[in-house]
Amino acid sequence: MVLLTLMAAVTVGVVRLRNLFAVVILGGIYSFLMASVLIVLDAVDVAMTEASVGAGIATVLMLGTLYLTKVEEHRPVHTPLLPLFVAVVTAAVLVYGTYGLPPFGAADTPMHLHVAPYYLAQSIEQTGVPNVVTSVLASYRGYDTLGEVTVIFTAGIGVLLLLKGRRRDGEKGDKA
Amino acid sequence: MRYDTILRIGAKLILPFILLFALYVQFHGDFGPGGGFQAGVVSAAMVILYAIIFGLAAAQRVVPPILVETMVPLGVLIYAGVGVAAMLLGGDYLNYSVLLHDPVHGQEFGILLVEIGVLVTVAGTMTAIFYTFVGRGR
Amino acid sequence: MEILEPILHHYNHWITIFLMVSGLYIVVARGNMVKKLVGLALFQTSVYLLYISPGKILGGTPPILAEGFSVYSNPLPHVLILTAIVVGVATLALGLALVVRINEEFGTIEEDEIFEMISEE
Fold first, then answer.
1. Which site in A77, A120, B125, C35 is 20 to 30 Å from B49, CA atoms measured?
2. Interface residue A51 vs chain C (CB under 8 A)
3. How many domains does chain B have?
4. Cα separation of B18 and B45, whole Å?
5. Which residue among C57, C76, C97 sits closest to A162, beta carbon to beta carbon?
6. What is the domain extent for residue C66?
7. Is residue A13 part of a domain?
């Protein structure tokens, strides 16, 4: 509860601040708070991944980008009333929708009754691995992990294609 | 100058333990939280820490960019190769049960190989992206 | 106590909606490209929270099978979100590379200045 309120406060800071360096550091704090919330929600694998990826790699890459571009953000020219109105209306509609959801932590919702008990019961016998998340990720749903590794590979190739090679100092003339 | 020395010595002390932790997370992903993705990111973080403290040229002497760029497709090849090997041994694509003499051992072996492939690709990609971003501003 | 019940049952969902809407606001309303990407990352993490918080069972343990525990939280959303986190950082890296290239071409990363430069040509 307290952690979630802290996350909301950090988000308000991210919206309002204009110094991009501070925004990136607040993003790192936000990722650590998210990892703590995930541990409270019993998602230990996801918490480790979110902490290392969100607070590590994302912060480092954004600091690298700030090193190559500038650090301040311009003051907005016109007040953004229409996006604010759209955001508030969307939030109101979604809050009205949450009244139909089951309460937090209930054990008899449909998502806990059909597929998950099968995986929890069969994982040790069929694969011999006690960590159900790893056995589902690598064995029962192995195709999805193959697709995910291909996506990471494609992103790496894309970044190498875009940014490899010596930087031309601001002139566009010799690109033919 | 004092702080520079503290950082260098501290980093030299802690870097082997980061690598050890990455390998621990990888191989104990079956029994606790962990697995390929977390281990790959922690390995990349080790190389990034070395590059931040000792400079990009020193890091590129230890882990050359050619090695890193070869690691990126190598992991995908390992993963797809496990599937093709399963097909050659008589089962379906990515059916680990036919890899060894016993279905349960075959599943464990298949999961181990697949996670190694994931580790190689994730570590290679994160390090390659970092090298590209930092090497651009020269 | 009647007033507090919906708050306790749905506090997770409301905070998730607040994070999602503020991420959406940053993407739509701000012109700086790096800040837009930070807003997009904010939106993505709120979606992770949306998926994982219904998976928790009060009184359960993390889904690692061990002796002595019988009620486990649902492992299926964890698998989905693990993939989603890593794919999210891959697209963030690609987006940042595009921002760097745009900065080299136009000299700025503010959206309205780039629109002026394009409409002048």
1. C35
2. no
3. 1
4. 9
5. C97
6. 4-120
7. yes
